[in-house]
Amino acid sequence: PGGAPRHRVTVLGSTGSIGTNTLDVLARHPDRYEVFALSAHSRVDELAAQCARWRPRFAVLPTPELGRALSERLRAEGLATEVLTGAAALEQVAAHPEVDSVMAAIVGAAGLPPCLAAARAGKRLLLANKEALVVGGQLFMDAVREGGATLLPIDSEHSAIFQCLPEDRTTWAQRIDHIVLTASGGPFRQRDPASLREVTPEQACAHPNWVMGRKISVDSATMMNKALEVIEARWLFDLAPRDVRVVIHPQSIIHSMVVCRDRSVLAQLGTPDMRVPIAYGLAWPERIESGAEQLDFLSLKALTFEEADAARFPGLQLAWTALEAAPGSTAVLNAANEIAVEAFLAGRLRFDRIPAVNAGTLESLSIPAGAAGSLEGLLELDAMARRHATELVARLGV
Ligand code: NAD
Ligand code: MG
Description:
Elements: E1 7-12, H1 17-27, E2 33-39, H2 44-54, E3 58-61, H3 64-76, E4 82-85, H4 87-95, E5 101-104, H5 112-120, E6 124-127, H6 130-147, E7 150-153, H7 156-164, H8 172-175, E8 176-183, H9 201-204, H10 214-222, H11 224-236, E9 244-248, E10 254-260, E11 265-269, H12 275-283, H13 318-324, H14 329-345, H15 354-364, H16 375-396
Parallel strand pairs: 1-2, 1-5, 2-3, 3-4, 5-6, 6-7, 8-9
Antiparallel strand pairs: 8-10, 10-11
Helix pairs in contact: 2-3, 4-5, 5-6, 6-11, 6-14, 10-14, 11-13, 14-15, 14-16, 15-16
Bound molecules: nicotinamide-adenine-dinucleotide and magnesium ion.
């Protein structure tokens, strides 16, 4: 009361791991932020509870049926939140004139249209949804520039790099020699590669250092997550693909590093807690309390580093392959991976065949000229790659 107006935040994917961590940080700063809109894909009960707690102007669900179920719940509780449904509603709440910041925490390419809408509307765009940038590439970055948006990375590695760089982006190219993304190596870092064929979804989703959604957990186990992050970093920091490197660091304490021209190395450290990059994205260039534990240096035994083994993680290399290939290749890679992960989680594909589906789709699909130049083109390419990958999954089987 009487202070500065509160910052209005839309949280896309508010029921997910990043979404709930975002609300946890927002709850620590009620005088600073208010929630403008929330969105979920299936969890109506959780979204209803979030609406009761946050009283947003809008709540978004994918279908009219789910929308009606939520409306009834909200009406029974006397809440004024307006329920919107369908993909266009996500764009509407991302680009609404009264919104200041958009947390993009949807999983997969489904998040690209609302991200583009927020970028074109000049929002502060907090990007957790790495697939949106992997698919959108140049088009996404052009939309950010042309819309005058502020793109803030939430992925912990990219937040780390961003935290190591000065605010003035025009100095970045002059300073950076290359960057090193750290990777935990996931749950199978030391497992016999020959035994990866037996991996179950439960084993793949049990990450040693982070609790995350199922898709990114599988991606971490195959290291396709790191492949997507290499592509994400190429665009966020405008780097040549070869200047984005990866090293395994099993403790996940160093979240990534910038190697400067003078060979000075800047790193960002902390406990593995996504509320740190989320708080930084929300408050940048300021810093606010995140709820994370302090790093206890004396309890750290060792910080170790290893090379990512290409035999164990054949998917990782596909990042550079796709970045060097025709524009749109990274969208193809992402679509194939979404299909492969979904098939693995449904018991229709062996874990060790996920990279084969990704590589096979990338090789077999010829990208129509100009496909990467528009959202429509990219969505068609995405659909085409999903069909190719689905056929490949059926052929490879379990
Ligand atoms: P999650 O599965 O826990 O949550 C995903 C959210 O998106 C849910 O709210 C769900 O309702 C919504 N959603 C799913 N499919 C949708 C669709 N087709 N249309 C609209 N909404 C949909 O996932 P998460 O772990 O929170 O990850 C979200 C994004 O953040 C991913 O892109 C992931 O790679 C990235 N990320 C996550 C972490 C993490 O620690 N969880 C870290 C870095 C980056
Ligand atoms: Mg990450």
